[in-house]
Write a structure and sequence with these properties.
By secondary structure, the protein is mainly alpha-helical. The protein has helices at residues 5-19, 27-34, 38-50, 65-87, 92-102, 108-117; strands at 54-57, 60-63. Helix 1 packs across helix 2 (27-34), helix 1 packs across helix 3 and helix 1 packs across helix 4 (65-87).
């Protein structure tokens, strides 16, 4: 099942909130992080739940196996693109903004090639 770009962003946001040390991620936390309204976040989370990417129990959002895999994959792509752009001399802030846009459309093959180009074959792609 294909996931849409906004869905990828929600999964990645949930993943990053847990990585920041939150022990309970709720819809309001996602709203604050991505600066979206509660109704739009609720609709997106409901769709992700229906598609099997997340579970929600007593308000706590958790990534299911596939949701976690997608979040890590998108973050890996962002890291690869950002590091490549920085290696090419692009300012770090600009490279992060550009990588955030590119991470959703770059192929696995291109991402693998970027990791080889930047000299990091050990990255979790």
């Amino acid at each position: 099942m294909a996931i849409y770009e906004a869905g990828e962003m929600y999964l990645m946001t949930i993943y990053l909130l847990y990585q920041k040390g939150m022990n309970k991620v709720r819809a309001i936390d996602v709203c604050r992080e991505i600066k979206r309204s509660k109704p739009s976040v609720s609709i997106a989370l409901s769709q992700l739940k229906d598609e099997g990417y997340i579970s929600v129990t007593n308000g706590k959002i958790e990534l299911k196996e596939e949701g976690n895999r997608i979040a890590k994959k998108i973050l890996s792509r962002r890291e690869a693109v950002s590091r490549m752009l920085e290696k090419m001399g692009v300012d770090k802030e600009i490279s992060m903004k550009d990588a955030c846009k590119i991470e959703h459309v770059i192929s696995d093959e291109a991402c693998d090639a970027i990791y080889k180009f930047i000299g990091d074959d050990s990255a979790d792609k």
